[in-house]
Amino acid sequence: MKKFLTHNQQLKNLRHKNLVIKNSSKTKRILESENYYTIINGYRSIFQDPSSHRPFRFRNGTTFEEIHSLYELDAELRNIYMKYILKIEKSFQSLVAYFFAKDNKNNNRAYLDFRNFRKPVLKKGFPRANAIHKTIAMFSNKMANEHDFAIQHHITVHQEVPIWVLINSLTLGEIAYVYYYLKDHLRLEIAKYYKNHRNKEYSTHVYSIRPDDIDNFLFSAKHFRNACAHNERFFCKSTGRIQNIGILKNQMKLYLPKKDFQTFERQINRTIVDYTNKFVSIPINQIKRQAGI
Asked: In this model, does residue 128 exceed pLDDT 80?
């Protein structure tokens, strides 16, 4: 069982593991406000002495300030990515609602009928074909949310909630399921929309976006979104389909307007430059390699 350590004992433990602590008072204040486990256990691995395994030892010269700088860099990267993931989330909300409503223009409750969705071929790593019932149940649960003013207003005044109203309450992960179960022609319409807009913006015809590509992106991107939302370690985040945040960034290019993507990329690069001189025991390039950026 892990023993409780006071903040002073934590500092002693870190020094015992070869970590340089330049300012005990400042380090203690940081640990008091930001949690030992989150900072040290979350970000220490890249600073490990490669010749040590058990017990853990830091590389010679590693300072607490370096670990805390990586912690802060990670927070900035999360904030940048979250901003643009949410833009993509909003874009998919809008397109899914538009094309589904257009295809079911005489029925504002069409999303509650499983016959208006497809039964996809079973693929490893994707939802089962009959899990559409869970997605429809999710729609019903959203309608029952008494704290969502827009939804409750439409129920009270119109006795129904159009999908373009309901869709705003869905997260990227929920949108991934809805898109996955859309009928094939609607999935293709949305894929064509992104493909045509990106090719037009970049004056090229090299971008090919298929519905399966969107499935792969959405079901992976939701994990990165959740990591951002819950302040999890982000710079070395990986999923089965997207191995690092650099690959995620490159895939986000397909779903962001060109101007937004260019700003997104500049913000990442500027943030990396701002932190370059804060690392001594390891080069910034080692962090960039793990992140894929």
From this structure: no
Give the tens place of pLDDT for each residue, 142-168: 878 767 778 887 877 888 888 999 999
Query: Minimal CA–CA distance to 40: which of 52, 49, 30?
Result: 30
Structure tokens at 46: 């890249």
Give the chain's radius of gyration (CA, Å): 23
Classified as helix, coil or strand, 63 is: strand
Residue 107, both tokens: 């029925």
Beta-carbon count within 10 A of 254 CB: 19
Reduce the DSSP state of residue 146 to 3 states and report it: coil
Q: Quick one: angle between helices 284-291 and 64-103, nearest 10? A: 30
Count of alpha carbons within 13 angstroms of residue 233, beta-carbon side: 21
The pLDDT of residue 146: 65
The predicted model scores a pTM of 0.92
Distance separating alpha carbons of residues 21 and 234, to the nearest angstrom: 25
